[in-house]
Amino acid sequence: MKVRVASAGTGKTTSLVARFLTLIGEGEPLRRLAGVTFTRSAAAELRERVGAGLREILSEGAYLGDLVVAPADARPRYEEALRELDGATLATIHGFMALGLRLSAPIVGLDPDFGSLPEWEAQAVLEEELEGILLVAEEPGHALHAAATRLGDRAAPLVVEAFRQRSLAERIEAAPDDPDAADVVALYRAAYGRFEARTGASRLAPSEIERRALALTRSPQALARLASRAPRVVVDEYQDVNPLQGRFFAALEAGGVQVEVVGDPKQSIYGFRHADVSVFRRALATGEVQAPLTESRRHARLIVRFLNALTRELSARDWGFGPDEAPEVQGAGAQREARGRVEVHWVHGGSRIGDLRPTEAQVLAERLVAAHRRGRPWREMAVLARTHHGLERVRAALQAAGAPAVLRQGRGYYERTEVRDLVTALKVGIEPDPASLATWLRGPFGGLPPGAIDRILRSEAPVDAVKAEHPEVAERLERTRAAVGGTPLDALRTLVRAPMIDGRRFVELLSGRQRENVDALLFEVAERPPGELEVLLERLDLLSRQAKEAGDVPVAGEGIALVTVHGSKGLEWPLVAIHDLGASDRPRPRASQLEDGHLHLPGGAGFAGAAAANAERERQESFRLLYVAASRARDELILTGSVTERGPEGWARVLDVMGMAPGAREREGDAFVLKVHPPRPISEAANETDPEPAAHGAPEAPWTRRRFEPGALPPVESPSRVRGNGDDHTPAAGHERHARIAHDEEPLRPGATHDEIEVGTSFDAVDQGRLPGQAITVGTLLHDAIRRDAHPSDHDEMELLRAQELMFPYDAGEQDRILDEVRAMLGVYHELLGRDLAPLGLRERDLREWPVLLPDGRQTWQGVIDRLYLVDGVWYLDDYKTDRTLRPERYAFQLAVYRETVRRVMGVAPVARLVSLRDGAVVPYADADLDAAWNARARA
């Protein structure tokens, strides 16, 4: 096995692409190479990068200068590889394993068309089978009666915990002299046996794919078949494989497959996902070690120096990694010329670190504001912390300092009120037990006061009491129970969109952020629809219990990114700040320990040793987390920590051995700052809002105290939301109707938007079975098809539209209806080409979806011109509409803004037209009408 260490920023993906190009040039066809990485997005990026490398080497004869030079006779091989790219094996580890299983499915007892089983659903199935076992084990004569009785209420959680750890060992055994562990293993094997019988050969969870793939390597025939399909396998991110995956690749190597792995033990931080850095270390100890990658094109000079000092001190103490895993790196490329900046800020004093952290967060906010004043945009900054709680602390300080922040991943999405309201409604629909009924009655669907709920629950028949006292609520209850009769996705959609709450939809009661969360839930269920409602509820309950990375929908917008260190892996920013260096390392408590395939429980002879070994693994990973966090910075790195009088703990100890702890000499220069801050009073740290006090001596700007009164419109607005309100529907009928314009002048029905009107779907259609936003989906797909010059008869183009993400919430029938509507209007568009619209081939210039940003005094107009093109010296501005009843006067102002933008930018006044894609009408606007609409904005 060939092994290479690639430190952060040293071009690991580039080296993989170069390796593929070298092998192809030497005569190995791409179809016989396999590239394996961890995530689908990483696999997609690798495919894209390999394709770009092939095209570059075909056009230039080399890749990235002289990194790979094409042999003189290799052009046909590279051309062949480019043709094979779409079918090349560039996949995730589980995807590659699944490929091997499909190649030999009958040999290993699988259906060749087996599907995947998400891990959450696998656990739900296991829990269901375990529940049945525990039920029958209550009988005294049952073989598992004694084990279940001795464990009592601990049985189910301990068995489930063992199931979650099954990627750590192919077979789980009970630790010697541990009777409780033996009872758990007995129940686990019984439940796992029924789990396998139920999922059978047709659906495999990730861990079962690993186990089956490992079993495949023991079949000479199956192993030979996989080796003939992929005689060489290149594995990325090898530091993150788990023990079963490591054994699989080792077995491939022993079976004749040439395995090459690349990774960085310093970045092995996914122990909670069962990643085991010892797998990489075994490869380093026994494999053919290649020269490490040591040229960093990511980091500025001072960041390189800091990272080298960090890895040198850590490796010397065997904190997280050893010397052979931490080669010194050098700057390369453009970043070698960038100096960079490093700041270390400590808050020191007192006996409780919790009293220091508010000051630390405020100091961090001040430093980021200072960086912004030096010219660093907010979007180029990120704050990393180990916990979401730390990020929330920083967000509050940034908010007080007036700095925008974007929490990339928050905690508790599945505990959000709007999500739990829907979960409760589903539970009540199945069976209204007192607990779920009380929550439902108190929530938006019931809407009853506490006193009424108390009377209902005290009655002998609560449902009958609802019917007697609150018939309108009883009707909603019946509609809720009727909704759950269909598929889980249909039930959710009905609860979200049906007007069940006094004629209003559930979604109408939500804020914008809450709507995003509900939309995300719909997308999640639509993408991986469970077969039964009970399975969906088990899944949602499971996810709500899991704290790790179960967050809100990521917040959109401009601002400082707030990210956990685990969530930052693979990302980079020009400026990175690391918060809470002084936090102490505490191992996660576990109800059981799985060590070397043996299950240990508290009280057993080996539990203390297994727990200590696990705590040491977590301590070692903590050091690697610091390296990952620091290596995300390109140009500037800011570190903050709190240290009490007891001395440094956690990551602060690392800075201490580097000579950068609170006791070191303070420095404050252009490129390096080391400063110690005294703790501020808690009230001051919590309430102070000025991040740069007057002591800095900057004079007050003349506009500081000026007030900006809100205008009639938001400061940045789309012109499509400003409507003309004339009575005549033809643009040539006169100018007076354009003298009055209004923002969203036409009243909307609850939950609807003007965008839905614009794409021509009536609200009745939405009410009668279309998901909210389906009209927007039609318009978006249609505009995309026109932008790409797609033809309605092109099946592949239509299927490409079907594959777009915004189609995920719809079932196959709804997708067909959407595509039929798009296809029909796309056909109208193609009929217009060459008749009322200039053919594409005659256009001298053709700009598609041209962005508009037009400053207009205190107002800024923002939008997109569908098509702007030049024919015979005349510019045409076409705006596509799909309204069922086209009212041109509604869009006069929108077209006026677009024409004014073109006039200012290009110095020409285009012919502005509406193109109706329902009836094929092309409606031009007179210049005088557009002038009147534009001038009317001042009187609006």
Q: What does this entry show, briefly?
A:
This protein is of the alpha/beta class and 940 residues long.
What does this structure look like?
This protein has 940 residues and is of the alpha/beta class. 44% of the residues lie in helices and 15% in strands. The protein is built from 34 helices and 31 strands. The chain is globular, with a radius of gyration of 32 Å. The termini are far apart. The model is unreliable at 545-557, 684-696 and 725-772 (pLDDT under 50).
Give the uncertain stretches in residue-range form. Answer: 545-557, 684-696, 725-772
Helix vs. strand class? alpha/beta
Cα end-to-end separation: 73 Å
Name of the CATH class of the largest domain: Alpha Beta
Tally of structural domains:
6
Approximately how much beta-strand content do the residues carry? Answer: 15-25%
Q: Give the strand tally.
A: 31
Reconstruct the topology from this structure:
Elements: E1 2-5, H1 12-25, E2 33-37, H2 40-60, E3 62-63, E4 68-69, H3 75-84, E5 89-92, H4 93-103, E6 115-116, H5 119-136, H6 145-151, H7 155-164, E7 173-174, H8 179-199, E8 203-204, H9 206-216, H10 220-229, E9 232-235, H11 243-254, E10 258-263, H12 277-286, E11 288-289, E12 295-296, H13 301-316, E13 330-331, E14 341-348, H14 353-373, E15 381-385, H15 388-401, E16 405-407, H16 417-430, H17 434-442, H18 450-458, H19 462-469, H20 471-483, H21 488-497, H22 512-527, H23 533-545, E17 560-564, H24 565-568, E18 573-578, E19 593-595, E20 598-600, H25 607-630, E21 633-643, H26 651-657, E22 667-668, E23 672-677, H27 682-687, E24 716-717, E25 722-724, E26 741-743, H28 754-758, H29 763-767, H30 774-787, H31 795-802, H32 812-832, E27 845-856, E28 859-871, E29 874-881, H33 892-906, E30 911-916, E31 922-924, H34 927-935
Parallel strand pairs: 1-10, 1-11, 2-5, 2-9, 6-8, 7-20, 9-10, 12-13, 14-21, 14-23, 15-17, 15-18, 16-17, 18-21, 24-28, 29-30
Antiparallel strand pairs: 3-4, 19-20, 22-23, 25-26, 27-28, 28-29, 30-31
Helix pairs in contact: 1-2, 2-3, 4-9, 4-10, 5-7, 5-8, 5-23, 6-8, 7-8, 9-11, 14-15, 16-17, 16-20, 17-18, 18-19, 19-20, 21-22, 30-32, 33-34
